[in-house]
Amino acid sequence: MARFGRSFVQAATQPQYAQGLFTAAQQMGAAPGKRREQERLEALKKMGPVEQAQYMKSIARTPDEILKAQQLETSAVQQGSLRSLQGLEAARQAAATDAEKLKIERIMTRVAVQAGVDPTSISGRTQKESDADRQRDLSEINLSNKERERDERALMNAYYATPENSREAFEQKAINKGFGNVIEELREDRERDKLFELQMSNASTKAAENLAMKKAPLPDSELRTRINESNIDPKLKDQYISELDDIKQPDFEAGETWNPGERKLAEEAMRSLNTAVRNEVGREVARKSTIRTDIRRLEQELTEGPSFRDIQAQEAEAKRQLGSTWYSDPSEEEIQEKAYELALFVKQQNIKDLLEERRFQLGEKPVQEPEEPKEEKETKQIGSFTVREI
Fold first, then answer.
1. For a disulfide at 156, which of 10, 123, 272, 282, Cβ 3.0-4.6 Å?
2. C-beta neighbour count of 375 within 10 angstroms
3. How far apart are CA 370 and CA 131, in angstroms?
4. Residue from 94, 117, 114 nearest 104 by CA
5. Calpha distance 303→301 (Å, rounded)
6. CA–CA separation, 306 vs 310, rounded Å?
7. With a threshold of 0.85, does the pTM exceed it?
8. Quick one: DSSP state of residue 189?
9. Segment 119-132, tens digit of pLDDT
10. Where exactly are the structural domains of the chain?
11. How far apart are CA 207 and CA 24, in angstroms?
C-alpha cells in the first residue's frame, strides 16, 4: 500500500498525468448533462407539433426564443386545426341526415377560428347543399313528369288508331313500359269510340242505300252512352250531353226526313263532339297519372327526414318546450334533437294531409289509421256482481 502511494505521488507530479486526470474529471462531470439532453431529445421526438412548441416555449431564456416558440405554437395549432377540419368535413359529408350534418358543421365553425379560417365560409354549408339537393330532385321530378306526360299523350293518340288485330300486342308493350294504368282507363273508352265510329259508318251506308227516303238516323244513343260512362268531369258531361241534344234529327216516325245538307252538318257535329270526348278522356287520364306520380313522390318523402330549413324553423319551439331552470339550460344537442323531432312530425303530418287530398282527387276513400286494440281486462264474478280487475 505504501509502495502504491509513493508511485501515485510520483505520477501525479508529472504534468502529462495531471492533465489526463483533469480531462477525465471533466468528462465525468459532463456525462449526466449529456444523458439529460439525450432524454429530452427522445421525449421531444414523441411529442406532437403543439406540445413541441409549448416545450420550446417553456425552456426559452430570451425574448427572441420566446417569440419564436410562440410563433411555432400558433402555426402548429393552425395546422392541427386544418387537419381536424378536413376530418370533420369528411364526417359531415358522410352523415346520414341534415340534423347530423348541422351538428358537425357547428363544431367546424369553432375549429375554424383556431385554424385561422373564416367561420362564415363554413356556416350555412349544410343548408346550401340541402337546398341544392332538393332543387335538383324537384327539377328531375318535373322533367320526369313532363316526359311522362308527353309519352302518355303520344300513347293515347296511337292507341285509338291501332288496328284491332294489333291492339293486344300494343297494350302489353305499353304495360311493360309502365303505362298499365293509362291502358286500363283507355281500354273501355276505346271500345265505345270504335262502336260509335262503326255505327256512324253503318248509318252512312244505310243513308246511301235509302237516299230517296232520306230516313237514316245518326247513332246519338251510342255517343250519349259514351259520354255518360266516361271518366270526365260531371259538369263537362252535362255540357256534352247538352251539345248532343242540340244536334236535332228529323222525327222519322212522324214522317220527317233530312233536308239537303242537314244530315251532313249533323254528322260533322256529332263526330266533332265524339273527338272532344276522346280528347277529354285523354286529359283526364293524364291528370290522374300526374296525381299518382305526385302520390308516389309524397310517399317517398314520407320516409325521409326533415330538411335543414324545417329543423331550423322548429328551434325556437324546441327551446320553449325544453324550457330552462335556474340551474341549467338545454344543451345545443338537446335543442337540435327536439327540433328534429318537431320538424319530422310537422313534415309527416303535412304530407299525410296532401296524400289524403291527392287520393280524394282520384276519387279514392281516405286511408283510415288502424285503431290500436284495446286491452280487455279480466273480470271476476263475486256473488251476483261482475267485477273488472284494475
1. 282
2. 5
3. 35
4. 94
5. 5
6. 6
7. no
8. H
9. 777 877 877 777 77
10. 1-39, 47-123, 134-302, 308-322+335-361
11. 141
